[in-house]
Amino acid sequence: MNYSQRLKAARKHAKLTQAELSKAVGITQTSISDLETGKSASSTFGASIARICGVSALWLETGEGSMTEQGQNPANARSNDLGSNETINIEGLPAPLAQKIKSYRNLVDVPRYDVEGSMGPGSEPPDINMVVEHMSLDANWVRQNLTYTKLENLKLISGRGDSMAPTIRSGDAVLVDAGVTTVEDDAIYFFLMRGKLQIKRIQRGLDGLTIISDNGQYPPIEVPGDREADITVLAQIIYWWTGRSF
User: Fold this and answer.
1) What's the pLDDT band for 80 if we cut at 50, 70, 90?
2) Residue 76: CB partners within 8 Å, gap ≥ 6?
3) 15: helix, strand or coil
4) Is the same domain home to 167 and 200?
5) Which residues span the domain enclosing 42?
6) Which of 28, 61, 109, 235 is 20 to 30 Å from 43 by CA-CA measure?
């Protein structure tokens, strides 16, 4: 079952029309129709769609796991999405516990920037880092599936080019942790090199770094230890929307 078929199954599971689902998510009915017919790729609103339909966000995006989690009721999911007037009385509770309850979030809103990391020769940094939209992720999914420094450091950008294929494809939405600004582990990073934005795998060696493209057509780049200052790490890539994490 591909993404389009899973989306249609999720909507029918929730007993929603395309118009009702599009209104609940905050996008056009045409967008839903295009997703269900395969005219558009998986949506950055996938987590919101999954929550509203009462299905697993992981299942909707990747087909992995079961369609529903713990028998979740779609009506309850929609109610939680719209907010509840129920509050928890924190008066008299120990301060750390009261703060934890007060700051608890069901959703994590991640800003998506109009920034593209090149998976090729490099791209010019934009004059202004503009937020173009937000992706709402289920907070429990974030905590269970991602490793990050702080929620506030999670950002979305796009990848362009084929040098990281088949791991990351051109146009994929890429989730980064902006709290990581040094190469401590072998991982995929978003970085600035010679004035160009890049997304590549970086490995640390005994005397310097090796920049690696997953596409074998691109040779690795050796960066001696005394030239590491030429690379400015902006973030570590922690997830991308082909359904694979790193």
Assistant:
1) very low
2) 54
3) coil
4) yes
5) 3-82
6) 235
